[in-house]
Every structure is written in structure tokens, then in C-alpha cells.
Model the fold of this input.
Amino acid sequence: MTDQTPKGDETPNPEKELSEQNLPGQRGDHGEEVRVQRGMFGAQSGADTSGYGGLVRSIRLPGPASRPYGGWFDEVADELEGALGEQGLLPDNAIERTVVDRDELTFHIEREHLVRVARTLRDDPALRFELCTGVSGVHYPGDKGRELHAVYHLRSLTHGRMIRLEVSAPDADPRIPSLVAVYPTNDWHERETYDFFGIVFDGHPALTRIMMPDDWQGHPQRKDYPLGGIAVEYKGAQIPAPDQRRSYS
Done:
């Protein structure tokens, strides 16, 4: 019987998994700063009820990557750019920037070209991203002119790959083309993103709220949505709503 105990560098090191490079959002001075967050959650309305009002950190988005991207990322980028060019669309007009961050590939797409890019990624034999696992909304109030972001995760079952598309829209015109015609499973995901963030997906077959009541005012996951809340009774104690709790500021 041989000794299977790891030795030297093979020994599991729990500290390695906690290093700065493995933690989300730790970009130092790199990338694009969209805001400076104060407090734990960045709430702008009301006093600090978390006790972390003194916490200040920079919120940064990763900047564009330069070639070579590494691995199969270059192959996908080349195939996508070539396929768009064959359709008479200049890749630079459709792809705002390409980001490689934490070993993940993201194409930032101009919203007017989103449907064509998605259909190309789905149908081109060298790409074949057949599955969109949904769309998520993000609200960056400090990202002026593109405050609302829609993020799509695409998987290629044929090639065993995953990429991300990201599209932005301003608060003043929160409209992005629907991808339901390309990826029908996005139906409910787009409704949820509309419900919580207010992104209007043009061309959606029935864009209505899916979680909140139809007459609900506002979109609850936007950063500018009031903290609000409802008082809760818990084992005889009355827990006030978040915006009425003890203030640490």
C-alpha cells in the first residue's frame, strides 16, 4: 500500500482560497470606477441601520481585455467577429468591448445589435451556444448614461463552453430588445428583470410583472428604491421596518 497523504505544495491550504485574488470585487485600482459605496449595502435613503456606515469602498467594473484572451476565448471571439462580418455588420459596431475577468469571457453588446449577435452565437456551427440560462438585471446609478445592465449567460452544450453577454441602457430610455424569439426560455426571466429593475424588453410577447402585484409602484431591486419594509412581530417582540430601526449615524 502506498502513502496517499499530500506532501509539500500538495497539502490543502485553506488560506489560499481566501487570498485577495479569489475574493469578488477586489480589483484595487484596476477597471472602471462607477461609484464609491458607503456602508454595507450602499443604501442612499435614511440613516445607517447596519452599523457599517463607516465602510467606504470603490465599486469598479473590469476594463476591456486585450489579445490574446487565452484558451478558447480567442477562438470564440474570432468566430463571432467573422460571422458578424459575413452578415455585413462590422464587429466593432456590435461589440462595445470584450472583458476577460476571473477566467470568464463577457461580450458587451450594443443593444440595437443584441438579437443578431445572440442568433449568431446560437446558430453558427463553430459557436453553438444553444442555451441561455436567463437574464439578470443590475443597477449602477453612478454609471451615467448606462445605469441599467442586462446580463445573459449562454452555454454551448455542443462545445462545453459558457460565455456572458452584457447590454446597457440609460435610466432615461430603459429599453432593450427581447431575446424570447431566439431563446424562448427567457420569457419569464425577462418578466422578472422588468419587474425588479424596470428594464423594458421590446418585442416580449407579454411583458407584465411576475412577482410583484400589477399595480405595484417602482422596481424593488433598483439601488434608488426606498428601503421601506413592514414591521414584523416575532415571539412577542415588535421588529420595526428597516427604515425605522435604530440609526448608527
